[in-house]
What we know:
This protein is of the alpha/beta class.
Amino acid sequence: MVKKKIVITYGTFDMLHRGHMRLLERAKDFGDYLIVGVTDEDYDRSRGKLNVAQSTEQRVEAIKAIEFVDEVIIESHRNQKSEDMVKYKVDTFAIGDDWLGMFDYLNKYTQVVYLPRTQGISSTQLRSDIFGTVKLGIANLGRNTKQFIDESKFVSNLDINQVYSQDSKAMEEFTNESNDVAHGYNNYTEFLGGDIDAVYINCQPDERYALIKKTLEHGKHVLCARPSDLSDMQRQELLDLAKNKRLVFLSELKKDYLSALNHEPNGCGFRYMMAEFTSLIQRNSVKS
Ligand code: CTP
């Protein structure tokens, strides 16, 4: 009996598109039996893919529905690939050439092939087309502003494009040094008149209420680090204002909150954006 040639590939396959389909078709051409490893949500987050639009289940279902895919498995940890090569007696491991060289270590178990990526399409692009880009300004430079901006690059639908600080010298130094943020303001009204949809407010407790209120009055969404400094009355007033103006006032944002984005603050529909401090970027001086 002739042994079936086993081919395996892995990916997130978010919002399945023709680039994925072409990759899978060409992978299948290397053998008789195609196994597709779909990354699970936790694994994706741990490797920096923070805003995948579809759940693991939805992505698995989409791949299962492809007639020439023979088996779907879940990829949930870093060393799984080498374990799978042995477990499934894989003859060929195929992956797009955006990973060129990265899986050469698997050559000791199987044949590794890198296939040219289909140009002009990606899940990142599709997410951006569908959900749009949120332009976020930062109100007040802080110790962690640079970290916040660096980590925001892991979020494909987020563009941090301007900062505000009362300290014009600090603000000038920051924008001169930053490759990402070109616009700095030390007048808050002018800052709000800039090209932004939302503001991350990171200011002193005594300024917080006034700044949030002004931001909402100008029609911009608000993300706020420490709303606990507000009184109950102030918080309720600001939430009512946000609701009337159909804006988001995300009132439970903390440095390591993540799960706070999974609930809707008081009926305001926060649909799609993530911003967080993580340990994705290691820094000696900053505890993350
Ligand atoms: N792929 C491809 N051509 C594309 C997009 C993806 O050949 N235009 C391949 C990748 O190289 C990989 C597999 O499809 O082997 C799964 O890729 P995945 O990362 O899930 O898709 P992307 O569209 O690259 O996703 P993202 O934009 O989120 O990185």
